[in-house]
């Protein structure tokens, strides 16, 4: 997502990058897709870290197989790089350390691009999403504006930009640019934030009535409402800033980064990118080749 993720996104200290699986400093022969073996943690495999609790971008089906728009994009990227895809389900707040520690080659997991994340990893823009609020059907708590959340409890996934946006305590927002800062300006009580390891657990808290809203990425909110059987509504008038999401690559793996970027651009050119997004109903989040090639990359603000 800032996800939006405008999943965005807890404070992540840049750890020493560990190139797992590297047995020699000499470059290894490259497969047909152009990725040298020493750029991969597992031979002939594109290993992807993804928080698979975030439908429709990434989730697990009944057989625990990873599915979603991000997973389909990753599958197509691997195909074009002549690699086999392997998805490692990883909690969102630990996903960059997992990449840095050599657990995977790239992250595709609705990560909003922020300056702090860009300091830790390279990020290739591939999608864009806003931040939305899901409430119980009929909106019994009458949440219609940001001010209506002051003094109430809201759920968000741990490590996301949504959690940061409420408190101003994370990487995406400072204390003067948070929703709680808005509450203070209006002379109201802070929003109480409840964080969960999985976005689905945050939604479950809403269903249980322990929170008045679930704060999540725009495509996720739409998916939750559409698949709720009438249990939830989205407060569309409260959708907040849209931000670019990025595919994260270790800063040491520049050849892999460039190969992934080239494959993504080719998918855009031949229409595969749009086809995948449309399949999952998230085509409104499509970005352009100009966005992918943007330098410096866009960071959420």
Descriptive report:
The structure is a single chain. 29% of the residues lie in helices and 22% in strands. It is of the alpha/beta class and 301 residues long. It has 2 domains: 37-128 and 243-292, 3-Layer(aba) Sandwich (D-Maltodextrin-Binding Protein, domain 2); 131-241, Periplasmic binding protein-like II (D-Maltodextrin-Binding Protein, domain 2), CATH 3.40.190. A hairpin with a 5-residue loop joins strand 2 (59-60) and strand 3. Helix 1 (69-80) packs across helix 8 (254-270). The protein is globular, with a radius of gyration of 19 Å.
- Give the tally of structural domains: 2
Rounded mean pLDDT is 87
Q: Classify the secondary structure makeup into a structural class.
A: alpha/beta
Report the C-alpha radius of gyration, rounded. Answer: 19 Å
Indicate the CATH class of the largest domain.
Alpha Beta
The helical percent reads 25-40%
| CATH arch. level architecture of the largest domain | 3-Layer(aba) Sandwich
The major pleated sheet works out as: 9 strands, mixed
Number of helices: 10
Shape: globular
**CA(first)-CA(last) distance:** 15 Å
Itemize the secondary structure elements and their pairings.
Blueprint: E1 45-50, E2 59-60, E3 66-67, H1 69-80, E4 84-89, H2 95-100, E5 106-112, H3 115-120, E6 122-136, E7 153-157, H4 161-167, H5 179-185, E8 192-196, H6 199-208, E9 213-217, H7 218-226, E10 232-234, E11 240-249, H8 254-270, H9 272-279, H10 289-292
What are the salient characteristics of this protein?
two-stranded antiparallel ribbon, 301 residues, D-Maltodextrin-Binding Protein, domain 2, alpha/beta, single chain, 10 helices
